[in-house]
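Issue 218. Parser rejects a valid record. Input:
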Amino acid sequence: MSKIEFSEELGQYRFRFLNGEVVIPNRSGGYVVASGCGSGKTTAIRQLMINSFHEGVLYSAATIKECNEMYDWLVDKCTKNNIQIRDTSGIIHTLTPDKILTIHSEPRIEEVNGKMICTNGVNTSLWMNHPDKVAEYYIVICTHHKLLNENPYVLMTANFHPMRISTNLIRMAMSGIEIGSSIMPPRQWVLIDELPTCSPLQYIINKNSLIVSGTMMDINIIKGFNQYGEAIYEEQRSVKVNNNFGLFQSKLLYASRGDKSLDFGDLKIPSVKLKFDLISSVIHENYYEYIRSESPEVKVTYNLSKIVIENGMRTKLILFDGTGDLTQVGSKRFTLLTYPNKYNSPINLYRFDNHIDRVVKIDVNFFI
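Output the parser choked on:
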C-alpha cells in the first residue's frame, strides 16, 4: 500500500511505494515517476488528488473505464467524507461531486430516484458549447486521447477569465495568464497514469498550403562579388510567417479551401474552434521548420513532449509510468524520479531493427 507525505517546510511531496520512495521537488516542470509495475501508482495518485484538489488537478488515464473508476472513487470519497482544505489565503475549499468533471465520449445514463441522469460526470453539452466552464471544476478527468487531441488551454485553465487566442497557446496553457501585473496560474497538477500510446492530434499538410498562409516577400541574396569587391545581388521570392495570429489563421483557412487535409470542421462549434486554435498555434510556432522541409507534405503533430515547455512552466506534469526509467532514458523534457532494486532481476532495454511493419487494429471509441 503506497502513501504520500507532504512537507510544509520544504513544500514537497514524498511518495512511499511498496518497494521504494521518490520526492516530487517544489518546482514546476515535467516529471516521470518510475516506481515499477504493481507498486501502487494509482493509490498514490488518488491520495495526491484529495490532498491538492484545491490547486486544480487534471487527471488522464488510457481508457474510459479507468476514467469512470477514478470518478466513482472520488465521488464516493467526498460523499462519505467532508473533504475540505484551507489554502494559504485562508479560503476554505470543499470537494463535492459537482466540482468533478469527466471528459470522454460515453456519458453513463442511469435511473436514480426515478430520473435518468448521467452518473459518471460527463457533460457533453458543456464541453461542446461552453468549454470555458471547465475552469470552474476542481478536478478534471480525461482520457489520454482527449489529453493529446484537445486544446490544452481548456483543460488547464483553473479560474474565471475569458478565453482568448494566443500565438503560443500551449505556453499560455502551461504558464498561466497575465492579468495586469499578476499572473493567474493554470491547474497546478497534471497527473498522467501510464505513458499514452494513443494517436495524438496530427495533420499531414501540403507545404504549398503553408506557403499560402504566409506572407510572400522579395529579398536580395548576395550571389557573389565583382572585381571591385562590391556585392552582386540576386532577387528572390521568400515567405515569412505573419506575426498577426488572427490574420495568419484567416490565410490558413483560405488555404484549406483547396487542401482536403486541412478540413478543420465547423468552426462555429466552440470545441471545434478551440481545436483549430491549437493546431494553427502549433503551425505558427514551427512555421519555418515546416517550410524548410524537403518533403512536399509536412506532418504537424501535438504530442506529450510539446505540453512540457522549457521556460516559464507554472504547473507540475507528472507521468506515472512503471517502466519510465527504461522508456524515458535521456529525455530532455522530463526529470526522472525513481529508485534502485525495484525489479526482481536486472533489466536492460535493447532495440532490434527490422523491416517488419506492425499494424494493430483497435476500437478507437474505447479510448475517447
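Fixed in the parser; the record now loads. The radius of gyration is 24 Å.
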